[in-house]
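call fold(seq) -> tokens
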Amino acid sequence: MSHPLTISPATDPTSLYRYRDALYAEDLLIVALVRLDFFTALAAEPADLDALCRRHEIHHRPADVMVTLFVAMGLIERHADGRHSVTETAREHLVASSPWFIGPYYESLVDRPVVVDLLRVLRTDKPANWGSQTSQPDWHKAMEKPDFARQFTRAMDCRGVFLAQALARHLPIGGSRSLLDIAGGSGIYACSLCAHFPELTATVLEKPPVDAICAGAIAERGFADRVRVVAGDMLAAPLPRGHDLHLYSNVLHDWDVGIVRDLIGRSFEALPAGGRLLIHDAFLNRRKDGPLHVAEYSVMLMHATQGRCYGVGELETWLTEAGFTDCTELPGGAARGGLIATKP
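ret:
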């Protein structure tokens, strides 16, 4: 906890993040290949996302994650009319009528816990248990349990020590004075931004029991004089006012489109004129055909949360519709980045 938050590591941990983030992607390929015979059906009849959902009796959110992954993998192509078709690689190796079909090679893996979970998520659009642990409910419910909340917050905190300072180096927020870190977990991002910007103070908005965990972590880091914690539910009440910078760091990807748009709108209402909204996350590109590592990470999010990774273009559209202007992409660390926009 005494780590100086302005110092970067001497080595780049991006590959280590990607090993973890990509763990469930191959399980989704197993589901599609063995359980859905997805590629054989698509080779016979190209289809758009809605038609694919009807064909396989799956839901739009997880189907979007699956299709995006396969486009990024080079297994299917997305055409201008919205339809998808198989690539030559998929036609030769993933279509049942091909002499090079490798479906039987994958069949022995269909009872893996994550494979079973992902098929259920596709069919129901309901999150699976965290880490496929039968002893845990889905992530949203598990966070109400102090022991799980402490474990999860600690995991996100150790990630944030690197990611927060990597983002802070590129932030044009020197004029900001008061940060609201919404669903800020341990407060690592609020503390790190305050370490990089001496004029900044911050408030972390968190639900119980995370609010108490957060307050303890902030005090242990020595930032209690500049970072405070307010208990509250970002979805249940208007956001606190009096802050000229809002931050959603690795938050929006936990929620489906309707809630994401609602949160963006709540920030627009609470910010003053000239205030800014900063979104820090792993973003798909505007075409939603990559990067592959983000499409892989989106599978893990689809498995355990109500959300997925969003494309830069999607978020820019929702920011603009809410009234924000001057949306700008910012680099970050470990394949994450930022989007910052201004309330006129």
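The beta strands are 76-78, 84-86, 178-182, 201-206, 227-231, 245-249, 276-281, 325-331, 337-342.
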